[in-house]
From TrEMBL:
<comment type="similarity">
    <text>Belongs to the aminoglycoside phosphotransferase family.</text>
</comment>
<protein>
    <submittedName>
        <fullName>Aminoglycoside 3'-phosphotransferase</fullName>
    </submittedName>
</protein>
<feature type="domain" description="Aminoglycoside phosphotransferase">
    <location>
        <begin position="157"/>
        <end position="233"/>
    </location>
</feature>
<feature type="domain" description="Aminoglycoside phosphotransferase">
    <location>
        <begin position="47"/>
        <end position="146"/>
    </location>
</feature>
<keyword id="KW-0547">Nucleotide-binding</keyword>
<keyword id="KW-0808">Transferase</keyword>
<keyword id="KW-0418">Kinase</keyword>
<keyword id="KW-0046">Antibiotic resistance</keyword>
<keyword id="KW-0067">ATP-binding</keyword>
<dbReference type="InterPro" id="IPR011009">
    <property type="entry name" value="Kinase-like_dom_sf"/>
</dbReference>
<dbReference type="Pfam" id="PF01636">
    <property type="entry name" value="APH"/>
</dbReference>
<dbReference type="InterPro" id="IPR002575">
    <property type="entry name" value="Aminoglycoside_PTrfase"/>
</dbReference>
<dbReference type="InterPro" id="IPR024165">
    <property type="entry name" value="Kan/Strep_kinase"/>
</dbReference>
Length: 247
């Protein structure tokens, strides 16, 4: 599995990010396991976030740009300001969505509040995004077909769909933003958003509570979402996730 984390101050700023910052301070925020970095650009009155994917990185910022534009009519997601491909890589510039990621020290020390916000926030996303008109797919079949080799053959057959929704695609708690008062704000990192069983999101979202807050928070997350545990679908979608994110 690729490891992502908060970025240190020593992360180099690519020339094109420096250029679009137009002299405003650039702060490295997050590094992902594929060499990608997210920077915050301190434009007075409108902070911006620039996601950078170096050439060769498997992350498609084009896919994320399309999905953000589509989802913006229905849910709180970052507003796309700019996107470009350069010889060194691509960047996606968005306006700040207020709030902070659910894994800052503040929220790690208050997991009950964070999990409540993340669970109810995922429910509101699933209830808001329209299935009928969503042009993106994130079904198990599509994901299995994209796994190199025949690794997907190791999995049992796909469980029947519980409820088809527009999934976030990476509903882990770091991609959930929370306001200082504990209210859910919105989601970032929507490059895999698409139609799928809601358990595709729930399996990973609950798992991420364990990675970030420790054991014991899966049930509170599901309670906040408003659903009973489903061990079979959870196991299936976690195994699929593992195949897509080899260590
Ligand atoms: N528009 C925005 N408003 C506020 N915060 C943002 C915005 N865009 C990104 N962030 C912050 O930057 C972090 C990294 O962004 P994002 O999750 O999209 O990057 P990523 O590299 O795709 O992440 P991952 O490691 O999960 O693949 C987020 O967790 C969030 O804290
Ligand atoms: Mg992320």
């Amino acid at each position: 599995m690729t490891i992502s984390s908060f970025a240190g101050d020593d992360v180099p700023v690519p020339a094109v990010i420096r250029q679009i910052s137009a002299g405003h301070p650039v702060v490295p925020i997050w590094v992902n396991g594929d060499g990608g970095v997210t920077f915050r650009i301190e434009v007075p009155g409108l902070r911006q976030f620039a996601k950078w994917a170096p050439t060769g990185s498997p992350n498609s910022l084009t896919a994320e740009r399309e999905r953000l534009r589509w989802a913006a009519d229905f849910a709180a997601v970052p507003h796309v300001l700019d996107y470009a491909e350069t010889t060194d890589g691509t960047y996606l510039l968005t306006a700040e969505l207020r709030g902070e990621t659910a894994i800052t020290d503040r929220w790690k020390s208050r997991p009950a509040q964070a999990v409540r916000a993340a669970g109810s926030g995922l429910r509101s996303l699933h209830d808001s995004l329209p299935v009928r008109t969503c042009p993106f797919d994130w079904s198990a079949a599509t994901r299995l077909a994209a796994i190199p080799g025949r690794d997907g053959d190791q999995l049992p057959s796909v469980p029947p769909v519980d409820r088809l929704v527009v999934c976030q695609g990476d509903a882990c708690v770091p991609n959930t933003l929370i306001e200082a008062n504990g209210d859910f704000v919105g989601h970032v990192d929507l490059g895999n958003l698409g139609l799928a069983d809601r358990w595709a999101d729930l399996a990973v979202a609950t798992w991420s509570t364990e990675w970030n807050y420790g054991p014991g928070w899966e049930l509170p997350f599901l309670n906040a979402y408003g659903i009973a545990p489903d061990p079979k679908r959870t196991t299936y979608y976690r195994a699929l996730w593992n195949l897509e994110h080899p260590v």
